[in-house]
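ok so heres the complex, two chains, lmk if somethin looks off
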Amino acid sequence: MLKRTPLFEWHQKSGGKLVEFGGWEMPVQYTSITDEHLVVRKHAGLFDICHMGEVLVTGPGAAEFLNQTLTNDIRKLAPGLGQYTLMCNERGGVIDDLYAYCLAAEEYLLIINASRIAEDVAWLEARLGLFAGKAGVVLKNISEETGAVALQGPRAAAIAAECFPGSASGGTAVERVTDLKKNQVARYTYAGQPIWVARTGYTGEDGFEVVAPASLIVEIWTRIMAAGHPHCLQPAGLGARDTLRTEVCYPLYGHELDEQTTPIEAGVGFFVALDKGEFVGRAPLAAQKAAGPARKCVAFKMTERSAPPRPHYAIWSVGTEAAAIGEVVSGTQSPSLNTGIGMGYVPAASAKAGTPIAIEIRGKMAPAVIVAKPIFKKAV
Amino acid sequence: MANIPSDLKYADSHEWVRIVNDIATVGITDHAQHELTEVVFVELPEVKQPVAAQESCAVVESVKTASEIYSPVSGEIIAVNKELDGDPGLVNTDPYGKGWIFQVKLTPGGHEGDDLLDPDEYEALIAGH
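and the predicted structre for the whole thing:
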């Protein structure tokens, strides 16, 4: 039986096309992936992300435990700040990529991938068992009772200002929710209960992610939809979420990242703080960074009209000694650029932007070129 | 509610066929285009290519997925809809008209589509969706 979010009935009623994703029944689109994508780039879109997992880590030892378990330096997080980080195994392979927020002193919230909740919680518990200060750390998986929605797009701030008026009651002490800067999080009181509003997202647009008790999600969603009406806000499904993140080259677990892939190979080494002291995977990651990874995750664009590239298609070098050199991990038709785009792994020697490659699509070679990340950048 | 023209035959793999004399025109149904969502690319067969019934001979790509299109009849491809190269969305906006995909000249005595579904049979097939 697939799991359903509190918004399941709303999606059904609103024409959402529901599909399986990571064990959940989620809307892939309402009207069209392309339309929803373009609305997020131009106005604003609202995403149900209740499937994502939430873990609270609290206590006097929480920061030190997380710093030994995650790759980024959690000591940089004052209350009200969040950071992108990764959780690696001893070989440096990625167990999950996540956001860590410091809500208050000795209180951290981890937002993890839906498909990885069981693995992450098991890993965190196992690591806590080995942690010297374990008596001072409490781990709590609150995924079931917690929901989240993402409001994304250039009109997001105007809509958020209307939905969450007044000053924060915790986290970053802002007077208005729109005073939040990227990666800051604030506590607001909504219908008498605490909710968290963060200036984060997965689309490459300005936006907010709201984490709240599951019981409040339908009300928050409905309120945002109503406030967004004059701003052309539309609900957006996982299809647009995927095309939006692919255009800006954000990794998706199971595609760019897995337990056999390191953050250095994936191109997210910036979020691995090798200088912070010991953490799981540090030694192999430091060695790989020093020597340079053998393969790299690159972004590419099709250069002629072709079918869109798809995950698992082979990447070929071109020229007289053309050979299969890698594999596509994400690929789609870019709604912003109206061409095929994707990401894939190739040998480091072939990873330079500007390198011509070919994507094997049903036995035929379609020409493409490696490009700098992000693939799509908005004209300012 | 999907549009199912009464003058066409249907395959259970969601193609429609219009047979006039010995020429069969093939496309995908309104139900199929709705399920596939917006079509961004159509890979057409080669003209003069022989096809067997139920053989995959075209691919319709949406943002999310690639779907194979099977010939409901056997014969030789005699025309493909080149307009889809420039405007693949015709498959969505006019699936039974400008969104046609290819034409087959039927092989006499070959698979001529006698076992294809009538409109009411096709309607029953998709009723479960």
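quick notes: The two ends of chain A are 46 Å apart (CA to CA). thats all i got rn
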